[in-house]
Amino acid sequence: MNTKRWIALAIAAGLLVFSVIWQAAASFMTADFEEIFSMNDTPFEEKVIEEGGGAGKIAVINLNGVIQDTTGGAFNTSGYNHDKFLEMIEAAGEDAMTDGIILRVNTPGGGVVESAEIHDKIVEVQEESGKPVYISMGNTAASGGYYISAPADKIVAHPATLTGSIGVIMQSINISDLADDLGIDFNTIKSGEYKDIMSASRDMTEEERDILQTIIDDMYGDFVQVIVEGREMSEERVRELGDGRVYTGSQAKELGLVDDLGSLTDTIDMMKEEQGLEDPQVVEYQPGLGIDQFLGGTVKSMFGEEAELHGMLELLRQTNAPRAMYLYSE
């Protein structure tokens, strides 16, 4: 490569670096830092979606995406924030002006622990505040999405909602044959016989499968009990329905897994009528724009698809160990 080409390449690289720096500087210069930093500790802001003439209000809280407690730093631009979602539910329960809570659930489920934490928070708010909690199901409210819905005072699904998927799943991969073909050896030093259970480098033994099955059965029993208590169904009936399959909203209504069919607007109207709420204001809780969200948005705008890829890799890195999940996956 001659001198002129080297100079041209250096100029191009310099322009690229300058462009990145300029975009970052522009984002910072146009940002409202007072608002960003003041809202960093605020779990949400209220957006009015329906004006009301009455004194009370209905709070709508959205759950979108896989239920999991992950942190991806500045590259984490995913829509679900576990801690803030729990804070929103608690805040709605403590707000004296809020007469009812509607959770808009659109999730295939997720972590066992995270789903249980949401379930417990809903029950806590119901018991301590006495406020009704309704569920409005979106496209999908399956597995963990149904788990958290079970204790609600009313569950409303769209006829085409995919729900159910009652059960627990744990998966791993076995790449031992591929490793043999590639000439790859695994060296494992462990303190006990089962320390590398579900290892990807070898076949699972029957004893290991039995151990893991007892764990899954125990978690499944908890899932069943949540539905027994929340839906007032017999354990036998819940186990009959809870074979892992998904149901449409219409099927779930016929089976008693949901109470009614309709949209979010229908759910709001149902709460007004059934709870005797006179023209309440309806607000939607939205995550506040804190510094983490600002940085995530800035990185995403600067690097586009590369930021999305980094976020996905970070998520995979955090969840690469086998874990039990209340999760529906196609």
TrEMBL record:
Keyword line: Hydrolase, Protease, Serine protease, Signal
Boundaries of every Peptidase S49 domain copy: 127-277
Family: Belongs to the peptidase S49 family.
Superkingdom of origin organism: Bacteria
Transmembrane helix is among the record's keywords: no
KW Hydrolase (keyword) present: yes
Residues spanning the signal sequence: 1-24
Pfam families: Peptidase_S49
InterPro entries for the chain: ClpP, ClpP/crotonase-like_dom_sf, Pept_S49_SppA, Peptidase_S49, S49_SppA_C
Entry protein name: Signal peptide peptidase SppA
PANTHER family, per database record: PEPTIDASE S49, SIGNAL PEPTIDE PEPTIDASE SPPA-RELATED
Alphabetized Gene3D superfamilies for the sequence: 2-enoyl-CoA Hydratase, Chain A, domain 1
